[in-house]
Specification:
This protein has 317 residues and is an alpha/beta fold. It has helices spanning 13-30, 47-57, 72-82, 102-110, 128-145, 161-164, 177-183, 209-227, 231-262, 274-302, and strands at residues 3-9, 34-40, 61-66, 87-90, 116-120, 157-160, 189-193, 311-315. The protein has 2 domains: 3-228, Spore Coat Polysaccharide Biosynthesis Protein SpsA, Chain A (Alpha-Beta Complex), CATH 3.90.550.10; 231-302. The chain is 50% helix and 14% strand.
């Protein structure tokens, strides 16, 4: 199969018929073999009923339904697990992503050998309250990750199948999939300017709070990507530095007292010096950090399993 198109949907009943027809038209025009994986993220409207209806008339459309709203990352991760196409395309269900971009994205992956191609909505039809924070977050992510993309959060992306089968997306980390992929060794990441369309139905499902949590997500994905397999490298290094700092300070205070006694000079008792207690605190913290790294290392070795999400229904499989 050439292409798997993964579409997370949460209360997008109105747009699905048009989106299905649009994707199918593009695929048939270019002669692609394809599947559409529509992941209903616990919708409360008629999204699932519409998915079942469309699957009955389009054998290329398959549906996956969560028992409750799990979030876009969970929907993408589940779609990745079920995708069988040589190239995997992700897009939003709200018709703001243009399916006409699919052939060019496919060619960049298959002909130019990109691991990931991310869309760039250079001209956006979003309010300024979304575009300015988005540009700021993209700038920070570029600096921290070293990946030269303008729009990390664009839903329209193309992946090699081997990429999506070897990365894990959870929490709210869908914004940083290129960062996750890079730390898994998929470093050839490209970008394509894509058309962005105004929302036709409904309203956005994301509020201002996503910008508040954005920095935390970025710090988290950076930390986890670097140290998930080797937590001792992080905690052990900090613990060793803290322990050695406390030990050196304590040794200095003790040697200073011995020197004063030997030379019959006035001296303060060790326990009367605040610096001594700070050194003890640093030693204790160092030991705790080292033990935390050791325990995390043991936990990592014992829990090398993929996160799974509860699917209560399937159609078309």
């Amino acid at each position: 199969m050439d292409i798997s198109v993964i579409v997370p949907a949460y209360n997008e009943e109105e747009s699905l018929t048009e989106l299905n027809a649009w994707i199918s038209r593009v695929m048939e025009k270019h002669g692609f073999s394809y599947e559409i994986l529509l992941v209903d993220d616990g919708s409360t409207d008629g999204t699932w009923a519409k998915t079942v209806e469309l699957s009955s008339v389009n054998p290329n459309l398959k549906g996956l339904k969560f028992n409750r709203n799990q979030g876009k990352s969970a929907a993408l991760n589940t779609g990745f697990r079920h995708a069988s196409g040589e190239v995997v395309i992700t897009m939003d269900a709200d018709l703001q992503d243009n399916p006409d971009e699919i052939p060019a994205l496919y060619n960049m992956v298959t002909e130019q050998d990109y691991d990931i191609v991310s869309g760039w909505k250079k001209k956006r039809y979003d309010p300024i309250s979304k575009t300015i924070p988005s540009r700021f977050f993209n700038m920070v992510t570029r600096k921290m990750s070293g990946i030269k993309l303008h729009d990390f959060n664009c839903g329209l992306k193309a992946y090699k199948n081997v990429v999506v089968k070897n990365i894990q997306v959870y929490g709210e980390m869908h914004r940083y999939i290129p960062v996750i992929a890079k730390w898994h060794g998929f470093g050839k990441i490209g970008e394509k300017e894509v058309l962005h369309q105004a929302r036709k139905y409904g309203q956005t499902k994301f509020g201002f709070e996503r910008f508040i949590t954005g920095f935390l997500d970025l710090v988290s994905v950076t930390f986890v990507s670097k140290f998930r397999k080797k937590p001792m490298h992080f905690f052990g290094t900090l613990g060793t530095l803290s322990f050695m700092t406390g030990f050196i300070i304590a040794a200095y205070i003790i040697i200073q007292k011995i020197w004063s006694i030997y030379n019959h000079e006035a001296f303060r008792d060790i326990v009367d010096q605040p610096l001594f207690y700070l050194s003890l605190l640093a030693i204790v913290i160092g030991v705790q950090l080292f033990l935390a790294g050791f325990l995390a290392e043991m936990y990592t070795m014992a829990n090398e399993k993929d996160t799974k999400y509860l699917l209560i229904e399937k159609v078309g499989f």
